[in-house]
Amino acid sequence: DLTRSVAMQANSTEEERSEPLWKQADPAVFWNRAAMSDFIRLDAHELIVPLVQGHVSIEKCSVRGREFTLILLSRRSWHRAGIRYLTRGIDSKGHTANFVETEQIVESQGAIASFVQIRGSVPVFWQQPPGIRYNPKPRIDVPTMETVASFRRHASLLESAYGDILVLNLVNQRGDEAAIGDEFRKHIQLYDSKQWNYVAYDFHRETKGMRYERVEELWTKIEPQVRAMGFTFCERGIDHAPSKRQAGVVRTNCMDCLDRTNVTQSIVARHVLGWQLAQCGVLGIGEPVSEHPEVERLFKVVWADNGDSISRQYTGTGALKADFTHTDRFP
Questions:
Q1: What predicted TM-score, i.e. pTM, was given to this entire model?
Q2: To bridge 39 with a disulfide, which of 23, 44, 217, 322 should be the other Cys (CB 3.0-4.6 Å)?
Q3: Of 162, 40, 51, 146, which Cα lies nearest the Cα of 101?
Q4: 71-82 pLDDT per residue, tens
Q5: What is d(CA 74, CA 53) in angstroms, rounded to the nearest whole number?
């Protein structure tokens, strides 16, 4: 079932697993449910196949003779679907534009380790209508206090699905973008929940001159929180209850939730990959992925391809910073 994470599937009851596939699917990423409505009405279960928009990479590799499979799976929500500039921010039900769940999975000898991250537009009412400017000026449509209810619905959706939320807000802290980032911060302060931790990181200023490796400084700051969240681990496969459960999620955003977000998510995922491989017995505890060029190469390819796929679905073009994701540097 591509619509659900390893954690969701492993936590399913026997009764739930006996249901037809489409009934088990996550409704938020079941893109063709409306098209299947006649089959659903007729109980033609064998004809109903849920379709997902996003990305899938499945690659095999080995380290010192120990084989493993690296899977990267992104699921884009159909709620508030649309394209860049024309679809921004939040709706009244708490759904945000370009909301994507990305799951990095390592499988080796029956053991499965899964790590989930999410991205989504800044959850306030804002627009960026296209015009003759290369980069249209964003504007906030609804005052702060009139947005509170929708923000709380968004927060409730995330908390019920993931638990604690670590927000990485990568928008510029100066210029046109600053007002959007400030509005996000205000709502988190008004929400005042211990489940939400907000980190503002001016990606463009901190990485000026294409020094994207400096995002590692952000990783140093958030590593303790990500380590506390952990990842889901099923020692005997997805049909058995997990022995470890991911306790929270990193929610990353920039303006488009594309290029800056792609780079940042990939850096977080690279560090977690080492933990996953160690848990599955592929690497030693504390052994860095960087010591294994074949794993590094595979990781960069799947994450660059993932960024391109999500970008094409929201903008019609590939990711602008794919060169860095592929190589750690620009030519």
A1: 0.93
A2: 44
A3: 162
A4: 999 999 999 999
A5: 8
Residues paired with 93 in a beta bridge? none
What residues does 101 pair with on adjacent strands? 75, 118
Q: Is 182 exposed, middle or buried (0-12, 13-18, 19+ CB in 10 A)?
A: middle
The angle, 0 to 180 degrees and rounded to 10, between the axes of the packed helices 259-279 and 215-229 is 50
In which element (H, E) is residue 169 found?
strand 165-169
Residue type for position 13 = T
Rounded Cα distance between 199 and 168, Å, is 5
Contact 303, 262 (CB under 8 A): yes
* CA dihedral angle for residue 147, residue 150, residue 156, residue 157, rounded to 10 degrees: -140
The structure tokens listed for 242 are 């997990």
Burial of 192 (0-12, 13-18, 19+ CB in 10 A): exposed
The residues, any chain, with a CB within 8 Å of residue 232's CB and separated by 6 or more, are: 5, 6, 7, 10, 113, 114, 115, 116, 242, 244, 245, 246
Tell me: the pLDDT tens digits for 187-220? 999 999 999 999 999 999 999 988 888 899 999 9
What single string gives the DSSP state of each residue in 182-229?
A: HHHHHHHHHH--TTEEEEE--HHHHTTTT-GGGHHHHHHHHHHHHHHH
- The residues, any chain, with a CB within 8 Å of residue 331's CB and separated by 6 or more, are 323
Q: What is the DSSP letter of 45?
A: G
Phi, psi of 55 (to 5 degrees): -160, 145
